[in-house]
Design brief:
The protein has helices spanning about 20-30, 35-45, 95-105, 120-125, 160-170, 175-185, 225-235, 250-260, and strands at about 10-15, 50-55, 55-70, 75-85, 110-115, 130-140, 175, 190-195, 200-210, 215-220, 240-245, 265-275, 285. By secondary structure, it is of the alpha+beta class. Strands 1, 2, 3, 4, 5, 6, 7, 8, 9, 10, 11, 12 and 13 form a 13-stranded mixed beta sheet that branches.
Protein backbone atom coordinates (compact mmCIF):
# COMPACT_ATOMS: atom_id res chain seq x y z
CA UNK A 1 0.00 0.00 0.00
CA UNK A 2 1.49 3.35 -1.06
CA UNK A 3 1.38 6.53 1.01
CA UNK A 4 2.13 8.71 -2.01
CA UNK A 5 -1.44 9.97 -2.23
CA UNK A 6 -2.17 13.15 -0.29
CA UNK A 7 -5.91 12.49 -0.27
CA UNK A 8 -7.47 13.21 3.10
CA UNK A 9 -8.91 10.13 4.80
CA UNK A 10 -12.61 9.50 5.22
CA UNK A 11 -13.51 8.79 8.84
CA UNK A 12 -16.52 6.54 9.38
CA UNK A 13 -17.99 3.85 11.61
CA UNK A 14 -16.49 0.42 11.12
CA UNK A 15 -18.71 -2.41 9.90
CA UNK A 16 -18.45 -6.17 10.18
CA UNK A 17 -17.32 -6.20 6.54
CA UNK A 18 -14.24 -4.19 7.61
CA UNK A 19 -12.97 -6.89 9.96
CA UNK A 20 -10.56 -8.47 7.41
CA UNK A 21 -8.97 -5.05 6.78
CA UNK A 22 -8.82 -4.35 10.51
CA UNK A 23 -7.20 -7.74 11.06
CA UNK A 24 -4.59 -6.94 8.43
CA UNK A 25 -3.64 -3.83 10.43
CA UNK A 26 -3.61 -5.87 13.64
CA UNK A 27 -1.30 -8.41 12.04
CA UNK A 28 1.16 -5.68 10.99
CA UNK A 29 1.27 -4.56 14.64
CA UNK A 30 1.75 -8.17 15.89
CA UNK A 31 -1.19 -7.83 18.27
CA UNK A 32 -3.30 -10.74 19.50
CA UNK A 33 -6.95 -10.02 18.66
CA UNK A 34 -9.11 -12.36 16.57
CA UNK A 35 -11.98 -11.74 14.15
CA UNK A 36 -14.37 -12.50 17.00
CA UNK A 37 -12.74 -9.86 19.21
CA UNK A 38 -13.44 -7.23 16.56
CA UNK A 39 -17.01 -8.46 16.15
CA UNK A 40 -17.54 -8.30 19.91
CA UNK A 41 -16.32 -4.70 20.03
CA UNK A 42 -18.52 -3.76 17.07
CA UNK A 43 -21.56 -5.38 18.68
CA UNK A 44 -20.98 -3.64 22.02
CA UNK A 45 -20.35 -0.13 20.60
CA UNK A 46 -21.40 -0.09 16.92
CA UNK A 47 -21.20 3.69 16.48
CA UNK A 48 -18.02 4.07 18.51
CA UNK A 49 -15.71 1.84 16.47
CA UNK A 50 -14.18 4.07 13.81
CA UNK A 51 -12.05 3.64 10.73
CA UNK A 52 -9.98 5.88 8.49
CA UNK A 53 -10.36 5.06 4.80
CA UNK A 54 -8.36 6.17 1.76
CA UNK A 55 -9.22 5.09 -1.79
CA UNK A 56 -11.57 2.45 -0.43
CA UNK A 57 -8.98 0.91 1.90
CA UNK A 58 -9.23 0.99 5.71
CA UNK A 59 -5.83 2.31 6.83
CA UNK A 60 -6.63 3.09 10.47
CA UNK A 61 -8.91 1.96 13.30
CA UNK A 62 -9.94 2.83 16.84
CA UNK A 63 -12.56 1.31 19.13
CA UNK A 64 -14.46 2.64 22.13
CA UNK A 65 -16.40 0.92 24.89
CA UNK A 66 -18.64 2.56 27.47
CA UNK A 67 -18.96 1.24 31.00
CA UNK A 68 -21.63 2.07 33.56
CA UNK A 69 -20.52 3.39 36.97
CA UNK A 70 -20.49 1.05 39.92
CA UNK A 71 -22.86 3.42 41.74
CA UNK A 72 -23.98 7.04 41.55
CA UNK A 73 -23.51 9.46 38.66
CA UNK A 74 -20.74 9.42 36.09
CA UNK A 75 -19.28 6.87 33.75
CA UNK A 76 -16.08 6.10 31.96
CA UNK A 77 -15.18 4.84 28.55
CA UNK A 78 -12.35 2.87 27.04
CA UNK A 79 -10.30 3.42 23.91
CA UNK A 80 -8.54 0.54 22.17
CA UNK A 81 -7.34 -0.86 18.86
CA UNK A 82 -5.77 2.43 17.73
CA UNK A 83 -3.94 1.27 14.61
CA UNK A 84 -2.59 3.03 11.52
CA UNK A 85 -1.01 1.32 8.53
CA UNK A 86 2.78 1.94 8.55
CA UNK A 87 2.62 3.59 5.11
CA UNK A 88 0.29 6.28 6.46
CA UNK A 89 1.89 7.08 9.80
CA UNK A 90 3.19 10.55 10.49
CA UNK A 91 0.21 12.21 8.80
CA UNK A 92 -1.86 12.82 11.92
CA UNK A 93 -4.32 10.02 11.17
CA UNK A 94 -3.80 8.31 14.52
CA UNK A 95 -4.30 11.59 16.39
CA UNK A 96 -7.43 12.31 14.35
CA UNK A 97 -8.85 8.87 15.17
CA UNK A 98 -8.04 9.36 18.85
CA UNK A 99 -9.69 12.79 18.89
CA UNK A 100 -12.82 11.38 17.25
CA UNK A 101 -12.96 8.50 19.73
CA UNK A 102 -12.64 10.91 22.66
CA UNK A 103 -15.28 13.17 21.12
CA UNK A 104 -17.67 10.27 20.65
CA UNK A 105 -17.32 9.22 24.29
CA UNK A 106 -17.78 12.78 25.54
CA UNK A 107 -20.85 13.21 23.33
CA UNK A 108 -22.25 10.07 24.98
CA UNK A 109 -21.82 11.68 28.41
CA UNK A 110 -18.66 9.87 29.41
CA UNK A 111 -16.70 11.82 32.03
CA UNK A 112 -13.50 9.80 32.17
CA UNK A 113 -11.69 8.11 29.29
CA UNK A 114 -9.13 5.35 29.90
CA UNK A 115 -6.71 3.32 27.83
CA UNK A 116 -3.59 1.17 28.12
CA UNK A 117 -0.62 2.81 26.40
CA UNK A 118 2.57 1.41 24.95
CA UNK A 119 5.71 3.45 25.75
CA UNK A 120 5.54 4.97 22.24
CA UNK A 121 1.83 5.71 22.48
CA UNK A 122 2.12 7.26 25.95
CA UNK A 123 3.85 10.36 24.56
CA UNK A 124 0.94 10.91 22.17
CA UNK A 125 -1.70 10.43 24.84
CA UNK A 126 0.00 12.89 27.21
CA UNK A 127 -0.49 15.56 24.54
CA UNK A 128 -4.23 14.78 24.59
CA UNK A 129 -4.52 15.38 28.32
CA UNK A 130 -4.14 11.81 29.56
CA UNK A 131 -2.39 11.13 32.86
CA UNK A 132 -0.71 8.04 34.25
CA UNK A 133 -2.76 5.87 36.61
CA UNK A 134 -0.42 2.89 37.14
CA UNK A 135 2.05 0.65 35.38
CA UNK A 136 1.28 -2.67 33.70
CA UNK A 137 3.42 -5.59 32.60
CA UNK A 138 2.86 -8.28 29.99
CA UNK A 139 4.26 -11.72 30.77
CA UNK A 140 4.46 -14.43 28.12
CA UNK A 141 5.58 -17.99 27.55
CA UNK A 142 4.58 -21.61 28.04
CA UNK A 143 3.60 -22.37 31.65
CA UNK A 144 5.56 -25.20 33.21
CA UNK A 145 3.88 -28.13 34.94
CA UNK A 146 3.76 -28.81 38.69
CA UNK A 147 4.74 -25.35 39.84
CA UNK A 148 1.83 -24.40 42.10
CA UNK A 149 -1.02 -25.58 44.25
CA UNK A 150 -3.83 -27.41 42.49
CA UNK A 151 -7.34 -26.44 43.54
CA UNK A 152 -10.39 -28.61 43.30
CA UNK A 153 -13.65 -28.07 41.47
CA UNK A 154 -13.76 -24.44 40.33
CA UNK A 155 -16.12 -24.47 37.37
CA UNK A 156 -17.84 -21.20 36.53
CA UNK A 157 -21.30 -21.45 34.97
CA UNK A 158 -23.75 -19.00 33.44
CA UNK A 159 -25.80 -19.18 36.64
CA UNK A 160 -22.88 -17.51 38.44
CA UNK A 161 -22.90 -14.54 36.07
CA UNK A 162 -24.61 -12.00 38.41
CA UNK A 163 -22.02 -12.73 41.11
CA UNK A 164 -19.21 -12.40 38.55
CA UNK A 165 -20.49 -9.00 37.40
CA UNK A 166 -20.69 -7.76 41.00
CA UNK A 167 -17.15 -8.98 41.72
CA UNK A 168 -15.76 -7.46 38.54
CA UNK A 169 -17.57 -4.14 38.97
CA UNK A 170 -16.15 -3.57 42.43
CA UNK A 171 -12.59 -4.19 41.23
CA UNK A 172 -12.79 -2.44 37.85
CA UNK A 173 -14.85 0.53 39.03
CA UNK A 174 -17.66 0.16 36.48
CA UNK A 175 -20.09 -2.41 35.15
CA UNK A 176 -18.57 -4.11 32.10
CA UNK A 177 -20.94 -7.06 31.93
CA UNK A 178 -20.97 -6.94 28.11
CA UNK A 179 -17.22 -7.63 28.05
CA UNK A 180 -17.30 -10.29 30.75
CA UNK A 181 -20.21 -12.07 29.05
CA UNK A 182 -18.50 -12.01 25.63
CA UNK A 183 -15.27 -13.42 27.09
CA UNK A 184 -17.18 -16.12 29.03
CA UNK A 185 -19.18 -17.20 25.99
CA UNK A 186 -16.08 -17.40 23.81
CA UNK A 187 -14.37 -20.05 25.99
CA UNK A 188 -16.59 -21.30 28.84
CA UNK A 189 -14.34 -24.33 29.38
CA UNK A 190 -11.66 -22.02 30.80
CA UNK A 191 -14.01 -20.07 33.08
CA UNK A 192 -13.11 -20.58 36.74
CA UNK A 193 -14.43 -19.53 40.14
CA UNK A 194 -13.41 -19.72 43.78
CA UNK A 195 -16.16 -19.69 46.39
CA UNK A 196 -16.06 -19.02 50.10
CA UNK A 197 -19.28 -20.63 51.23
CA UNK A 198 -22.00 -19.05 49.10
CA UNK A 199 -19.92 -15.97 48.27
CA UNK A 200 -17.89 -15.69 45.07
CA UNK A 201 -14.32 -14.89 46.13
CA UNK A 202 -12.97 -14.53 42.60
CA UNK A 203 -13.29 -15.54 38.98
CA UNK A 204 -11.01 -16.14 35.99
CA UNK A 205 -11.59 -16.12 32.25
CA UNK A 206 -9.36 -16.76 29.25
CA UNK A 207 -9.68 -16.35 25.52
CA UNK A 208 -7.99 -17.66 22.42
CA UNK A 209 -5.98 -15.02 20.60
CA UNK A 210 -4.48 -14.82 17.14
CA UNK A 211 -0.99 -15.48 18.55
CA UNK A 212 -1.40 -16.41 22.23
CA UNK A 213 -3.96 -17.46 24.77
CA UNK A 214 -4.81 -14.43 26.93
CA UNK A 215 -5.26 -15.44 30.55
CA UNK A 216 -7.56 -12.86 32.11
CA UNK A 217 -9.47 -11.13 33.40
CA UNK A 218 -8.88 -12.59 36.84
CA UNK A 219 -10.40 -10.75 39.80
CA UNK A 220 -10.33 -11.81 43.45
CA UNK A 221 -11.25 -10.70 46.97
CA UNK A 222 -8.01 -11.93 48.53
CA UNK A 223 -4.51 -12.88 47.34
CA UNK A 224 -5.28 -16.46 48.38
CA UNK A 225 -8.22 -16.64 45.97
CA UNK A 226 -6.17 -14.92 43.28
CA UNK A 227 -3.29 -17.36 43.65
CA UNK A 228 -5.66 -20.30 43.38
CA UNK A 229 -7.32 -18.93 40.25
CA UNK A 230 -4.12 -17.93 38.44
CA UNK A 231 -2.48 -21.23 39.37
CA UNK A 232 -5.38 -23.24 37.97
CA UNK A 233 -5.68 -21.07 34.84
CA UNK A 234 -2.00 -21.58 34.03
CA UNK A 235 -2.16 -25.30 34.84
CA UNK A 236 -4.87 -25.61 32.20
CA UNK A 237 -2.58 -23.84 29.73
CA UNK A 238 0.55 -25.95 30.20
CA UNK A 239 2.20 -26.40 26.81
CA UNK A 240 0.33 -23.45 25.26
CA UNK A 241 1.67 -19.99 24.43
CA UNK A 242 0.15 -17.66 27.02
CA UNK A 243 0.15 -13.96 27.81
CA UNK A 244 -0.87 -12.49 31.16
CA UNK A 245 -1.20 -8.73 31.69
CA UNK A 246 -0.70 -7.71 35.32
CA UNK A 247 -0.44 -4.57 37.45
CA UNK A 248 3.18 -3.72 38.27
CA UNK A 249 2.31 -2.86 41.86
CA UNK A 250 0.84 -6.31 42.57
CA UNK A 251 4.21 -7.92 43.29
CA UNK A 252 2.72 -11.24 44.43
CA UNK A 253 1.20 -11.74 40.98
CA UNK A 254 4.58 -11.10 39.35
CA UNK A 255 6.11 -13.77 41.58
CA UNK A 256 3.43 -16.24 40.53
CA UNK A 257 3.92 -15.76 36.79
CA UNK A 258 7.69 -15.94 37.21
CA UNK A 259 7.34 -19.22 39.09
CA UNK A 260 5.15 -20.49 36.24
CA UNK A 261 8.02 -19.94 33.81
CA UNK A 262 6.72 -16.84 32.06
CA UNK A 263 9.01 -13.93 31.15
CA UNK A 264 8.26 -10.23 30.98
CA UNK A 265 7.61 -9.19 27.38
CA UNK A 266 6.85 -5.47 27.64
CA UNK A 267 5.45 -2.71 29.83
CA UNK A 268 2.30 -0.63 29.42
CA UNK A 269 0.77 2.31 31.29
CA UNK A 270 -2.87 2.66 32.24
CA UNK A 271 -3.85 6.26 31.57
CA UNK A 272 -6.95 8.38 32.07
CA UNK A 273 -8.39 11.67 30.91
CA UNK A 274 -10.95 13.32 33.17
CA UNK A 275 -11.75 13.13 36.88
CA UNK A 276 -11.19 9.37 37.39
CA UNK A 277 -13.69 9.42 40.21
CA UNK A 278 -14.10 5.63 40.13
CA UNK A 279 -10.68 3.97 40.06
CA UNK A 280 -12.04 0.70 41.40
CA UNK A 281 -9.90 -1.56 43.57
CA UNK A 282 -6.81 -2.41 41.49
CA UNK A 283 -5.33 -4.53 44.28
CA UNK A 284 -8.04 -7.10 43.49
CA UNK A 285 -7.09 -7.38 39.80
CA UNK A 286 -4.84 -10.38 39.22
CA UNK A 287 -4.86 -10.23 35.41
CA UNK A 288 -6.37 -7.80 32.92
CA UNK A 289 -8.87 -8.56 30.17
CA UNK A 290 -6.57 -7.00 27.54
CA UNK A 291 -5.50 -3.57 26.33
CA UNK A 292 -8.54 -3.18 24.09
CA UNK A 293 -11.01 -3.27 27.00
CA UNK A 294 -9.04 -2.98 30.25
Amino acid sequence: MSAASSVAPLFRALQAADVPAAQALRELAHWNQTDQDWLNLLAIEPQGCLGAEIAGHVIGTVTTTRFLPASGPGSFGWIGMLLVHPDFRGRGIGSALLARAIGYLHDCGVETVKLDATPMGRAVYLKHGFRDEYGLERWAGRPIADWGLTIGDCELTSADFPAVVACDTAAFGADRRSIVQAWFQSWPERALAVWEGSRLAGYALARRGARFQQTGPIVCDTPEAGRALLTRALELAVGEEVIVDILSKNAWVRELVQNAGLVQQRTLTRMYQGPNARPGQPQRIVALAGPEVG
